[in-house]
Design brief:
With 388 residues, the chain is an alpha+beta fold. The chain contains six helices and 14 strands. Helices cover 32% and strands 28% of the residues. The strands form three sheets. Strands 1, 2, 3, 4 and 5 form a five-stranded antiparallel beta sheet that branches. The protein has a five-stranded antiparallel beta sheet with strand order 10-11-12-13-14. The protein is elongated.
């Protein structure tokens, strides 16, 4: 009897234990399968027998049978109110199978000091439940579903379930996690995505799929979620594996184009800054997005000058560089109002040209555009003088 006279852990220790357990559970499963329904710790929430002695502290958890289905089971863990070092008893509501306590690790292997114990128990139960859901899908009397399942069943993280239709078609849902590897800014990266697919099966036409829907969710850090969301939904005839390949290709192609664009931007900026190094004012050698120069060309018996800035977008070379001209301000010049930067379209350009050809064509155009811009500045200055 002495074992039950004094509680081994205070309510604070129990609360701390549960907080650690549930935190570990959230880290392991992201709370996609489990949700805490109720936690009773104080004596007022403890179950008592008729003579007033406490029977058990109860932890209630609601658990989904799969990450995509709506079926749930309710779990009640009964802890010894005097000594939480004992493994709890467990009652499961809503589960057709009846696993033993030893199957779930609620036996001599229980370590009351390990906060991961609870998540391990729920993990074992989850795998049992998911296995049951998989078997229901595998036995579905539809050739398309059987083919899809046979292609995916070796994937450990794949989840699926079958929801019989009461007054409508039967639903079969698949959740298929997959990784996409790509290169961004010269670094290898990897993101995890889950494809959630729903098939509607006709109860009237054998082996018929009446509709298919898909949804993509990013499970890890990814800077371009809109890129994945831009992929069109799965079609009724498209296999899940082909849909995943299409999603993967969409992402990898984007970053391959981005990588090629960055390399070509670099070549263009390096070529134009090297060619006109004496005229260079500033440039971006990190993202290769712009370069500015002070150009001077002969105009009749004088010199015409302009500050020319090139802006290169991530769509280069499909999109030609944007070019602007502004009036130079020389030391000692008196202040006069100058026009805003003028956008100058590049007249001769092809995305198939190399950087040398693009720079040559631009310079030939500037040979005419800079004197024209200079003349415009002179007319503006003359008009301002006349007004004064």
């Amino acid at each position: 009897m002495s074992l039950y006279i004094t509680a081994k852990g205070s309510p604070y220790n129990r609360s701390h234990y549960l907080n650690q357990s549930l935190h570990h559970l959230a880290e392991q499963y992201g709370m996609t399968l489990f949700s805490v329904k109720d936690v009773n710790l104080s004596c007022s929430q403890t179950v008592f027998n008729p003579d007033g002695n406490p029977i058990a502290d109860i932890l209630e958890i609601t658990m989904r049978a799969s990450t995509i289905g709506s079926k749930t089971v309710d779990l009640q863990f009964f802890y010894d109110p005097y000594d939480w070092s004992f493994p709890p008893d467990l009652i499961i509501h809503g589960l057709s199978t009846n696993p033993s306590l030893s199957d779930l690790g609620l036996d001599d292997s229980w370590d009351h000091e390990d906060p991961a114990n609870l998540s391990r128990v729920l993990g074992k139960l989850s795998r049992m439940m998911q296995h049951g859901e998989r078997q229901r899908v595998a036995l579905c009397d539809n050739e398309r579903i059987q083919v899809e399942y046979s292609c995916l069943h070796d994937m450990e993280e794949m989840d699926c379930c079958l929801i019989p239709g009461m007054d409508g078609p039967t639903k079969v849902l698949f959740a298929v996690p997959f990784h996409i590897a790509y290169h961004s800014n010269g670094k290898k990266r990897r993101t995890k995505v889950v494809a959630k697919i729903q098939f509607l099966i006709s109860s009237l036409v054998p082996n018929d799929i009446t509709a298919a829907q898909s949804k993509l969710e990013v499970l890890s850090s990814f800077e371009y979620p809109e890129l994945i969301q831009s992929v069109s939904e799965i079609s009724k005839e498209e296999p899940i594996t082909a849909y995943i390949e299409r999603v993967t290709k969409r992402v990898t192609d984007h970053f391959e184009r981005q990588g090629r664009s960055r390399q070509l931007k670099k070549e263009f900026i390096e070529t134009i800054t090297t060619t006109f190094k004496p005229q260079l004012l500033e440039c971006d050698l990190t993202n290769y997005s712009y370069a500015a120069f002070l150009f001077t060309v002969p105009k009749e018996k004088m010199q015409a000058s302009a500050v020319v800035t090139f802006f290169v977008s991530d769509s280069f070379p499909d999109e030609y560089p944007k070019m602007t001209m502004t009036a130079p301000v020389m030391p000692g010049d008196s202040y006069t109002a100058t026009p805003p930067p003028e956008a100058i379209p590049i007249k001769r350009y092809s995305p198939r040209w190399g950087a040398d050809r693009i720079v040559t064509e631009i310079w030939e155009q500037l040979w005419d555009d800079i004197p024209r811009f200079h003349t415009k500045l002179l007319h503006m200055a003359s008009s301002q003088t006349t007004l004064v």
